[in-house]
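Researcher: Last one for today. Full complex below.
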Amino acid sequence: MAGMSSPGDGFRDGFRDGSHDRSHEMGMHTEQLAGRTQQVFFRPEEEERFLYPWAPDVDYNRRTEIDADTLTSTEVNSKLRALMDQGYGTIVVRNPRGKHSLGVGILNRLNLIFEGSLGYFAVGLIDGPNVRIHGRVGWSCGENMMAGTVVIDKNAGSTFGAAIRGGDLVCRGSVGSRTGIDMKGGTIIVGGDTGAFSGFMMQRGRMVVCGNAGKNLGDSMYDGTIYVGGTIRDLGVDAVPAELTDLDKAWLTRKLRQYELLPAQGVDHFTKIVAGKQLWNYDNLEPTEKKLIL
Amino acid sequence: MAGSSYKGSEIRSVDQFIAGDGLDSEREKEIGQHIGYRYDVNLLPDYDRLTPFLAKYIDLMGWDDLNWLEDVHMGYEEGHAAVFDRNINGWVRIPDDIKLPDNQQDRDMIARELLIKFQMSQRHPMVELRRAYRKF
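Model: Here's the assembly. Have a good evening.
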C-alpha cells in the first residue's frame, strides 16, 4: 500500500533513515506530519510601520462620546468603527447597560472607555486598543484577545480571558471560575480572588492572582506560568510549584505597579505554578487518529 | 494520568535547535519529532535590551511595556532561526545573513522587531486574506 513505499523527495532527512517512520511502516498515512517553515523571509529594511495597513490613523487627543442607551450592540460597535475612521483616538461609551459583545474586534490603537458595566463577551478579539471599563463584566471578557490592555474596575464573570493570545487583561476585583481557560499567551491579572479551574488547559502566557485561587488551579496546563499571592485551595492535574526567580519578581513588581495592584509587602510571598509536563504524550500518530475519528 | 515521566528534551544552550535536530529524549527519538516548543515560552523579557524600534512601537500604542510581544520569542524550525507569526499560524524564517546574538534575550528582541515590520507591511498574507474575507 502507498503508506509502505519510500518517502518522496519532500521528506526530511530524519524520515529517510528509517528511524522516524514507524507510523508510515504501519501504513496509516503517507503525508509528512512535521511542521514546515514558511518560506517567507523578513526584510530588515522593511518600511517602519507600527499599525496594520488597513488601520485608520487615529489621534489619542481627539475625544468623543457615544450614548449607548438606546443602541443595540451592533450599532455601538459600528459607531466605534466609524469614529475611528474619522480619526478619533479616545472614545467614551456612556450607558452601556450590560449589553453583550461591546467593543469586539477592534484591530487598531484606541483609547476606549466604558462608563458602566458590560455583558457577555466584552471586548473580545481585540488587537491593540487600551480599554477601561468603569463597572463589571459578564462571562468571557477579553475572549481571544490578541493585544492591548483591558482594565476592569469591579468584578468579572467566569471564563475571564478565555483563549487569550496576547495583551494585558486586568480585573481589579474578583473573577469567576475557569479564568484563562485555554489561554495561549498574554497576561491575566486578578486583583482579588479567582474561582475553580483557573488556568485550565493553559498553553502559555502568565496569570497573576493577587488573592486566593479556587480548586484545581492549572488543571491539565501544558505550559505557561501562574502566580498566586494568596492561598491555593488545590492544584489540578500536572500543575506543580516552581521557584520564584529574580526575573519573576522583577516582572511581577513592574506589572502590578503598572496597574496599581502591587501589594504593600511586595511580591516575595507569591507562589509560582508551572506545568509538570507529565501529560506531554503527543506523537506523530495523532493526526491520523483524528482523521479516522472525523 | 496519561503520562508518567517528562518526555521532552530540556533546552541546554541557545543554539540547541540550530546545531541539533532537537531529538534528545527517548520519546522524541522514537516518534521522530521534538516535543514542546523550540524555545523557552516562559522566558520573561529583559527590558534593558529593548531596541529603539520597539521603544517607539510601545510609545505609539500607549503601552508601558512590550504587551503582546512579551510572548514573542525567536524559535527554531528545521535548523533555522524563525519567529512564529500567529496571524498566519506559521513560522517565518529569519534571514540567514542576520547575525544572531549569543543570547536568547537579544534574539527575542530581534524577532519581535522583525515580526512587527512584517505584520504591518503590505506584503503580509493578512492583507490579501482580509480583502477576500473581511466581514466588517
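Residues 90 and 124 of chain B are 12 Å apart (CA to CA). Chain B is about 35% helix and 10% strand.
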